[in-house]
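TL;DR need C-alpha cells for one chain.
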Amino acid sequence: MVKILYAEDDFLTREVVAERLEHEGYSVVLAKNGKEAWTEFQKDSFNAVILDVDMPIYNGYEVAGLIQSENLQVPLIFYSSLANVDNIKQGFNNGAKVYIVKSGDIEELVVKLNSVLRDNSSRLCYLTEQVYFDTLTYRLNIYGKEKVLQNVEGKILAVLCKNPNQLVKKDLLLEIGWNSTGINWDKQLIKVISKLRKTLEDCNEIDIRSDTQKGYWLLINSPKTT
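>> reply
TL;DR here they are.
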C-alpha cells in the first residue's frame, strides 16, 4: 500500500485531509509538529511526504532539510496557508515537488499528489514492500537503508528490476553494461552479478539466478539457492 506522511499542526485540517487521502486508498501517518514528522520519517519508508510550513518545534522547511539529508528521492509536497512568493520560493528551494496554497477545497492536493506519485513510480521498482530501486539514480533502498550503486551495477540491476522473474538475456546485459556482446566482457558481467548478490544478500525474498549461457533471472519471493 502507498504510504504518506502528513505533518500538520491544525487538528481539523489534519483530520479532514487524512480522511480524504485514506478515501483515495492511501495509508496515512500523521504528525502534529515538525519533530514528530521527522521521528515518524526515521521509523518507516514513505512514498511521499506532505508538510505544513508553520509548525511547532521544526517548521516545514526544517523538516524538509532533515528528510533530504537522509533521502533525496521521496517526493515532498508543501501544503500551507502561507501564500507569499518568498514562502513558495523557499519551499521549492527546500526540495518541494509541489507547493500548494491551502483553500477550502483539498482536491488540488489530491490531484497533485496522485500526479507526483505517478511520476515517481515510473522510475521506482518495488521488489518487495520494503525493498525498492530507483532506476534513474541507482539508489537501492533495503529495509530503510539506502545504498547508491556504481554506474554499471546500476544499469544491470535496473534491467533486472524491470523484468522480475523473467530471463534477461546475457547479450542484452552486456550491451547495456559495456556496449558490446564480446565474450571478453563475460567475466565483467559475472563480477557485477556477484556484487549485486552480495548487496542483496540480506533480502531473503530476492535472488539472482544464472544460466551462464543464456542470462540471469531476478527472482522475487523465491528462497535463495545455496
